[in-house]
Automatic annotation (TrEMBL):
Pathway: Amine and polyamine biosynthesis; carnitine biosynthesis. One of its GO terms (biological process) is carnitine biosynthetic process. Keywords: Carnitine biosynthesis, Dioxygenase, Iron, Metal-binding, Oxidoreductase. This is KLLA0A10945p. GO terms for cellular component: mitochondrion. Belongs to the gamma-BBH/TMLD family.
Length: 401
């Protein structure tokens, strides 16, 4: 593999570029990009992996983006007119090529696995036919078990961990293995509560709670949640969970066949809904900038925000007729409460449930007796950072950024 310079343009500031040939494919690099991403020791810190030169403040962008581009051995070298020299290996150029798109090589070595959606039937098949969701607390520090735990949370939106000591300490240990515990006004660490209304939220009662995600009234909603039942001497209190990524697929299928469902999909993904938490006199939270289903450019689920108990009464200045907003919400509600789309099971002392609060809705049936539940909110960014470290060789990852 050798680098061949095919074309270059200089003395046009931001428009300067060089076109090279590598592996019989052409790649264009703008000189501003090469100056910004110089890999030399003066420009890039080898240990922190951060830039040392800020091109927006340290150089003259009108004058210092000019230079002579040559090939020396297996490196592309830019000899800038201000005296600086930048060198780029063939491997670096291939890993960082961005144009033309048809020649760009995607770095599949650091791609996260595909997410796997599920309904009740698929959930039962997974649980019965394989070792899914059967993680043992006694092996959580083994790299193999840890990787399975993180994989299941990412791919399926949840996992279960068995044989956990029935204690706050063990719950905290599992929480901190997965991510960083996020403090909130409910508790600054692992929370531990019963139905005593110590916090003015229906979670602190024995009432049934319908399908929901937590923290919709926060800008920074919890990324993950962890539940561990410590005690229940009564009846009821069963948990239901539902995969919203699966629900979104159902809505898309209906929208492809029915024009009214097209409007439903548009409302669910574009109309902001307002949520609040006003039970505590000293803390009032509200968030009104996001739709129920936030999706990416490909229409895939990023985040669900849904809790009909916490919706405010305000629907002023909406993008869509109010009756159509209610029709869309009713259809969404019907799907998430369809028995084909959720699973129901009792929590048990010694078993921890961890789930993606951006993807998996949860609910609780009414109960009687004393029921003590502990758990935690976990940060999403730290979970993903640890997950990447489990999946990828560090050198592979560094070559992709």
């Amino acid at each position: 593999m050798t680098i061949q310079i095919v074309d270059s343009v200089e003395n046009r500031s931001f428009d300067n570029y060089v076109t090279i040939k590598l592996n019989d494919s052409l790649y264009l690099f703008h000189l501003v990009y090469l100056r910004d991403n110089c890999t030399g020791k003066e420009s890039f810190h080898g240990e922190t992996h951060q830039r040392l030169i800020d091109i927006f403040n340290d150089i003259d962008l009108e004058k210092d983006l000019n230079g002579t581009v040559v090939v020396e051995g297996d490196e592309l070298v830019v000899k800038w007119f201000d005296g600086h020299i930048s060198r780029f290996t063939e491997r670096w150029l291939l890993n960082h090529a961005y144009y033309p798109e048809k020649n760009v090589i995607n770095n599949k070595a650091v791609k996260l696995p595909n997410r796997i959606t599920w309904c009740k039937q698929e959930f039962n098949e997974l649980k019965q036919a394989s070792d899914h969701f059967k993680n043992d607390y006694n092996h959580i520090n083994d790299d193999s078990t840890k990787k399975i735990i993180f994989n299941e949370i990412y791919q399926y939106g949840f996992t279960l961990i068995d044989n956990v000591p029935v204690s706050l300490d063990a719950t905290k240990e599992v929480s901190e293995l997965i991510s960083i515990i996020r403090p909130t006004h409910y508790d600054t660490g692992v929370w531990d509560f019963t139905s005593d209304l110590s916090k003015k939220d229906t979670a602190y009662t024995s009432l049934a709670i319908d399908m929901h995600t937590d923290g919709n009234y926060w800008y920074e909603t919890p990324g993950l949640q962890l539940f561990h039942l410590l005690l229940h001497d009564g009846q009821g209190g069963e948990t239901r969970i539902c995969d919203v990524a699966h629900i979104l697929k159902l809505i898309k299928d209906k929208a492809n066949e029915d024009e009214s469902w097209q409007e439903t999909l548009e409302i669910l993904t574009k109309q902001p809904i307002e949520f609040h938490q006003s039970g505590e006199s000293e803390n009032v939270f509200i968030e009104n900038r996001y739709p129920i289903l936030q999706v990416d450019k490909d229409g895939e689920l990023i985040q669900c925000r849904w809790n009909t108990s916490d919706r405010t009464s305000m629907l002023k200045g909406t993008k869509y007729p109010v009756n159509e907003i209610y029709r869309a919400m009713a259809r969404f509600n019907d799907l998430i409460n369809d028995t084909d789309n959720y699973v129901r099971f009792p929590l048990a002392p010694g078993t921890i449930l961890v789930f993606d609060n951006w993807r998996v809705l949860h609910a609780r049936t009414a109960f009687n007796g004393k029921r003590r539940l502990c758990g935690s909110y976990l940060t999403r960014d730290d979970f993903l950072a640890r997950y990447r470290s489990l999946l990828f060789n560090r050198e592979q990852w560094l070559e992709s950024v």
